């Protein structure tokens, strides 16, 4: 196919403030489960689109899927306790059976502008793909090459804050593509260790954080088409897997594999953590963190199936966390809706199989994509009346 992508006009997102109620039990409002077979189709993260209309997830060996937000949740501010759980179905599916490393939404995605509805994906031994979120078709590819002119797969992908550039982190470099020019035209920035995670700051355009498998984070500034080194952080015990900039751009939150701490870095005083947050991460799997659009709450998954939430609005370590045991298997993906108090989670991990069935302990494989209402809830008066009548009659 011809490498072409239409010109995309970026619109700055409108600031939205959402009222969360993490202290109260989260109410499940949507779910879809992938069956576990010999291929182990567990999920690998979930990502709300920037306009909040749909949810993207990656299934190991089962491609990428987009589920739409249930229609009744668009306008409501309160959910009844009797609301049934919506059975989610993929509106768009891309049957990519190879190993997918990373995905990323276009930051100016708006469903009323079809040209902006797209996402990136990187996979094993392949180029970076740009997919159409309406049809699931491949729009174009961005191809990076190594010193012997072989395809250099991207371990991580990210758009710049304005959506004009694409950052592709590989083993020895970060390749910078212009979004409107697919192909092999790029600028390269050398790195010392594989770039496992990349995130751009929206508050400070041009500032980009590059995490590596060597537990280091490099802060760079984009200028003259490439990167300029600013500083480097080191404090994690494992390779960096997830990062998020604060709303004001002065803080950076990071998490790593086999590391039970989320570190908050003060970018005004580089090199020293501002505080740390405890979470359960006992495997090499990528366990995501996400920051609310208002900048007040940070949420994290965990290998124990719990979702933790902290109020990080102050420059001191939160005194306590809010725990939500939402899954019976590893919760690897968390994503807060941009305009509604809805938390999306994904669960699943690789389980060692016993081909001779010697083990008598059943393996719990959940492999679920869920939506949880973490805002105001209201008891259904009809349901309460029915319960009272039933109790009276008995």
UniProtKB/TrEMBL annotation:
Keywords of the record? Repeat, WD repeat
Q: Name one GO cellular component term.
A: Cajal body
Question: Positions of the WD repeats?
Answer: 295-320
MF terms from GO for this chain are:
RNA binding
One matching Pfam family, short form?
A: WD40
Q: What is this protein called?
A: WD repeat-containing protein 79
Q: Name one GO biological process term.
A: Cajal body organization
Which family is this sequence assigned to?
A: Belongs to the TCAB1 family.
* Species this protein is from: Henosepilachna vigintioctopunctata
